[in-house]
Specification:
Blueprint (H helix, E strand, L loop, with lengths): L1 H11 L3 H19 L7 E12 L2 E12 L4 E3 L1 H6 L7 H13 L3 H12 L5 H19 L12 E12 L19 E15 L5 E3 L5 E5 L3 H14 L7 E6 L3 H10 L4 E4 L1 H16 L7 H12 L4 H12 L4 H17 L5 H6 L7 H15 L8 H15 L3 H13 L10
Parallel strand pairs: 4-8, 8-9
Antiparallel strand pairs: 1-2, 2-3, 4-5, 5-6, 5-7
Length: 422
Amino acid sequence: MAELEILVRTAVFKSANQLVGWLLQQAADRADALYQAKPGEVPKGRERLQVQGTFGHFPLRRDYYHHPGKQQGHCPADAALGLEGSYTPALAKLICLEGADESTYLKAERHLVQTGGIAVSARQIQRVVQRVGAGAQAWQEREGPLGTSDAPKMYVSADGTGVPMLSSELKGRRGKQRDGSAKTRQAYLGCVFTQHKVDEEGHPLRDWDSTTYVSSFQNIHGFGPMLRREALRRGMGTVGKVILLIDGAAGLAKMGRINFKDAIQIVDFYHAMEHGGLVLQALLGSKEHPEYKKRLRRWAKRLLKDKVQDLIQETRRECASKSKKQARAIRKALGYFMRNSSRMLYGTYRAAGYFIGSGVVEAGCKTVIGARCKQSGMFWSKSGAQNILALRCIHASRRRDEFWKHRLNDHAARNDSLNLAA
């Protein structure tokens, strides 16, 4: 009979929006009928909510319960239907996609109108993104089930970039300004990807669509375990080799030793060459010196032949004939290689078919973080930036459906008498 009534209603209603509204009202009535009030909750009758979906607006009536002791209210039907405020789950998912992917909330507002005729203000888009984004960040940090992978090589990479913040978010924080103050706050981005093959020349090939991302404004001690959990969900315990690609920063190296103690640590070759350039500038006085480019190419060739220790010794001998001030600058620049020499065996890594560049996470910092949070004139609160970056990481990791399924179940779980599949 229920199926027959739906068919009849479909023929009678003049619009898809009317049909959707009627179906949701039936689902809300059923949820209210099944709900058993929790201790302390007092029924307050039916309340009306103007709900917006992808097809338009429609009214929804549902039971409202109030808990005087906790000073909070609850509509069981809202949780059962997975409503985000006054938006249906389908529209909320679309709002979060546009709000996180577009460079501004205003552009997201315009794009929704232009592509779907859906009118949601930029301010409302921001509110939905922040509401859902807090759950997205918690979902990133969750203790997930251990995954499996048949990949012979798994790569874990991490980097940090500064996000411009409101002055209220930076009080008491040290930075790189002349007065010691900060204009940005460090956001960490981590990625995990796998490799099965190399090309005809023996260069590694990243597995298609294997990269997933996590982000956080926690310090390195909080971010490291979070990245480890992501690697475990991806099957770190079952892969052949785990390779940690970092830029040589002491904090990231320590994070690797603590959270990926059995991994092969590799310092990104591009950063090694950048620091090689700094050594040569200190030696020659300037990068405009006629020998600079020639010697930098020589550094690259020797680094790719595992000759980092030879370069250190040669530089030390050359340093002996320089002035004290210049020698001090050379030793400071050379310290990067002395600290990271064991992670710079690029000839060995290449022969094993490993990646020696951290381009994946570097690109992620630009596309996932920079493209949304580092536009001209932007200043963020910590929660505002963290929540939107969590959604962007989930989108970039192709996990939207998985996250939204979890969120719907989480909403439904607020009603003890309802099954999680409701």
